[in-house]
Design a protein that fits this description.
heterodimer, A: about 230 residues, mainly alpha, two-stranded antiparallel ribbon, 10 helices, globular, B: about 190 residues, 2 domains, 9 helices, about 0% strand
């Protein structure tokens, strides 16, 4: 298989950042109240991810190893600010729906995670395709979760009433905060039942390897547990 | 004045709970909630860092970014300041009070990437809070985080001793507990504030 196609397949299916790697849980749970919000969040993350992977890959030989994390954070934060301003100007409705979660793309584990795990080791072309694959995987997952919550919560799909309230009584809780936890729980239980291995169960055990800085914490915790 | 500060604490800690209704800091909420002791230490570290960082972020915004009309740079400035601040707090504690450092130390690096810290700083700016209000809101948010993570740890310690259907073992049962907690916390929304 062509290595570019492989990267995209890897991002969407094999290592889907949202469902298999369980990265970026905050936006996944917070903005998926509707399918449209899911698409919007996914695409803005996709844009940031492609350019951050590209820039970090180009600069991989320039950035000294000791200060790489602060350097990555500055690059990602600048890109997020650009996306933030563009969205504020051209899609104000979506911008106010996503609110604070747009600037919070900076701390989305997917972006720093890909920079650290992949983009700083490969050539720019591969890094870009990795960004596209991971970004699309994230977008698709958010859209599907958003669609499920919107449909169960209000009987709508992409804002259009699919089932009228006489046929299907909406379960309002799915559109509210608890619904996000509920949907994720059911989704992971289905994956567990189908024996598809995900990082979800490592995550609740404290070591998900999600953020570069967590590694230190995980090590220390591991040591304490072996002592005890 | 005083009543409005109390309102801010109740709103940020209970009504708009940072984890259960804002979904910030989910990573550590799920990751470090296996034991009550560890989650209480993390909670203490979060209270410490968020209170300081919201004070610093507010000062920076009022005296640097706003006068220079650079408020569009707030995301970049806040994340850098928070990352540096956590490092400094870590070094400071290591030197001055080894006891606190021993209890909180391993959790401090985890907090840099905790989106709750950045989230509070940005929300404070959005809501147009002054210095005192920002600090109080930061403190309240962190208290809300601590309440949520300790409660979840308590639930998880019990779950460990009960038999859970195989597909629900691990993450799903934790998320289900969080969902039930979120439903309970929705009750605070009906407080007429």
């Amino acid at each position: 298989m062509n290595q570019y196609v492989e990267r995209i397949y890897n991002g969407i299916v094999k290592e889907n950042p949202c469902i298999i790697l369980m990265l970026g849980m905050c936006p996944t749970l917070a903005v998926t109240t509707s399918a449209i919000n899911g698409v919007g969040m996914g695409l803005s993350t996709l844009a940031v991810l492609i350019f951050s992977n590209l820039i970090i890959s180009i600069m991989r030989n320039v950035i000294p190893d000791q200060v790489r994390l602060p350097a990555y954070i500055v690059i990602v934060a600048s890109l997020v600010t650009i996306v933030d301003l563009i969205m504020q100007a051209y899609v104000p409705g979506l911008y106010s729906a996503l609110g604070i979660y747009i600037p919070l793309i900076v701390v989305n584990c997917i972006i720093l995670g890909r920079a650290e795990a992949y983009a700083n080791k490969v050539t720019p072309d591969l890094a870009v395709f990795d960004g596209i694959g991971m970004g699309l995987g994230f977008t698709i997952a958010l859209t599907v979760i958003g669609l499920a919550r919107e449909f169960l919560g209000s009987g709508k799909a992409f804002g259009v009433q699919v089932l009228s309230e006489e046929v299907f009584t909406p379960i309002a809780i799915f559109g509210q905060a608890p619904g996000a936890f509920l949907i994720m729980a059911i989704l992971i239980a289905i994956l567990n039942g189908a024996s598809i291995s995900t990082a979800a169960n490592d995550k609740v055990n404290g070591c998900d390897g999600c953020c570069a800085t967590c590694a230190k914490t995980c090590d220390a915790q591991g040591k304490e547990e072996t002592k005890a | 004045m005083n009543t409005s500060l109390i309102l801010i604490i109740i709103t940020t800690a209970l009504v708009n709970n940072v984890v259960l209704s804002q979904f910030l800091g989910i990573c550590s909420f799920l990751g470090v909630s296996k034991q009550i002791k560890a989650s209480a230490s993390l909670g203490a570290a979060v209270i410490f860092v968020i209170t300081i960082s919201s004070a610093v972020a507010n000062l920076l915004y009022t005296f640097l970014l706003e006068p220079l009309h650079l408020d569009y740079l707030n995301t970049i400035v806040f994340i850098l300041v928070i990352a540096t601040l956590v490092q400094m707090v870590e070094m400071f504690l290591k030197k001055t009070s080894p006891a606190i450092y021993k209890a909180l130390g391993i959790y401090l690096p985890l907090i840099t990437t905790n989106c709750a810290v950045l989230g509070v700083a940005l929300t404070n700016v959005q809501d147009g809070y002054g210095f005192v209000e920002s600090v109080v809101a930061g403190f309240g948010t962190a208290v809300g985080y601590t309440i949520a993570i300790i409660l979840l740890a308590g639930i998880r310690e019990r779950i460990d001793e009960s038999s859970v259907p195989a597909p629900f073992r691990g993450a799903p049962v934790v998320l289900l507990s969080a969902a039930l907690m979120a439903i309970a916390f929705m009750g605070f929304g009906s407080l007429a504030l």
